[in-house]
Write a structure and sequence with these properties.
By secondary structure, this protein is an alpha/beta fold. The chain folds into 2 domains: 96 residues, no CATH class; 254 residues, Rossmann fold (3-Layer(aba) Sandwich), CATH 3.40.50.1110. It has 13 helices and 11 strands. The protein has a 5-stranded parallel sheet with strand order 7-6-8-9-10, sandwiched between helices. A two-stranded antiparallel ribbon has the order 1-2.
Length: 362
């Protein structure tokens, strides 16, 4: 009897041990499975977070897409995530595709500042010759033009001036060379031989011709004063100060010309140029002492331009294309005043580079 009881107890104990082991295994398995699910979920969140912060690199452009710009159901297609069209703006999509959706024109760079060193012509002549100066400026201008990515194809330009702007027969005037450099849509050349700023009999003054310029042009370049300098005695020059410019004088009508641009072309960018220094005025002043030095006209354009809020590109004081330099005359000039085709190219580069500096993409 005792032996039978011992055997029954052993069987019961064995069964209990098996049940305990089985139960422990099930509990442990469920714990491990739950933990694995938690780890997988955490890794999924981490991967999704990294995907939201990754860089999209397309056509050389880098764009960081924010969390709300990525679809929750991203699919990999040829290595690129498929993004819902509603989750990215038109401008961002243009950046990714490399195509601009903007058909607008360039805008002026509000942060542009002229940082060039201000020196007088005489100061620059002591540093190096006009040939050396022009060559150095030309190299810088070419670099600016070649590196520019601005699109001027929707822009139009007008040029108001005298025979330097019109161009001598047999040469390619600088406005047309500039058109090719910038790729502008259209150029209007209102250069006219003998034209002055102020009204002189038969001179077809710029103050009288200004309204021939189309009203919707984007950029206007004005260069005058050479013929005023050649024809006007001292008393017709006037005075630079606000109160005493005087009607019918160079200073007075230069102010009037600038006001007409403000009234009739408020949306255009207007740039004034001082004419390069020329040796012809020396001959004329030797015959007529009443004529003034060319520097006085350059000073007036700078002073009144600043007073009226217009930018002036001061070719005169840059010592640029100065025909007193015999090497400049033999390289870039047709005569003492007018550039040849190569001189017009250098002049076009000078103006084109200054325009590029003042604009940026919209």
């Amino acid at each position: 009897m005792s032996n039978l009881l011992n055997r029954s107890q052993k069987i019961i104990a064995y069964v209990l041990i098996v049940v305990i082991i089985f139960t422990a295994g099930v509990v442990t398995g469920r714990f491990v499975q739950k933990r694995e699910q938690t780890v997988v979920a955490a890794e999924t969140v981490e991967i999704h977070t990294e995907t939201q912060d990754e860089l999209l690199i397309t056509n050389g452009e880098e764009t960081v897409l924010s969390e709300n710009e990525i679809s929750e159901n991203e699919l990999e297609t040829q290595g690129m995530p498929v993004i819902e069209s509603t989750s990215i703006s038109d401008n961002q999509m243009a950046l990714i595709s490399g195509n601009s959706t903007s058909n607008g024109k360039l805008v002026l760079n509000s942060n542009y500042q002229d940082t060039s060193e201000k020196k007088t012509l005489k100061e620059r002549e002591l540093i190096r010759s006009s040939y050396e100066e022009t060559l150095a400026i030309s190299q810088q201008d070419k670099a600016i033009i070649e590196s520019s990515t601005l699109d001027f194809s929707n822009m139009t330009m007008a040029f108001l001036g005298d025979s330097i702007t019109e161009g001598l027969k047999g040469t390619t005037p600088y406005p047309y060379q500039l058109k090719e450099m910038l790729g502008v849509k259209e150029v209007y050349n209102f250069g006219q031989g003998g034209s002055t700023v102020a009204t002189i009999d038969g001179s077809k003054a710029m103050t009288e011709r200004v309204n021939e310029i189309p009203s919707d042009v984007d950029i206007i370049v004005v260069m005058g004063g050479t013929n005023d300098n050649f024809y006007q005695p001292v008393y017709q020059f006037g005075f630079m100060t606000w109160e005493t410019k005087g009607e019918g004088t160079f200073c007075g009508e230069l102010q009037l010309l600038m006001k007409k641009f403000k009234w009739s072309y408020p949306n255009a960018k207007v740039l004034f140029l001082t004419p390069p220094s020329n040796s012809k005025i020396d001959e004329l002043r030797a015959k007529n002492p009443a004529l003034q030095d060319q520097s006085v006209y350059a000073e007036a354009i700078n002073y009144i331009g600043n007073e009226q809020g217009f930018e002036v590109i001061d070719l005169f004081n840059m010592n640029f294309l100065n025909s007193h330099d015999v090497t400049v005359r033999s390289t870039w000039m047709s005569d003492e005043v007018h550039p040849n085709s190569e001189g017009n190219k250098v002049l076009a580069q000078r103006v084109a580079a200054e325009i590029i500096k003042r604009y940026q993409m919209p």
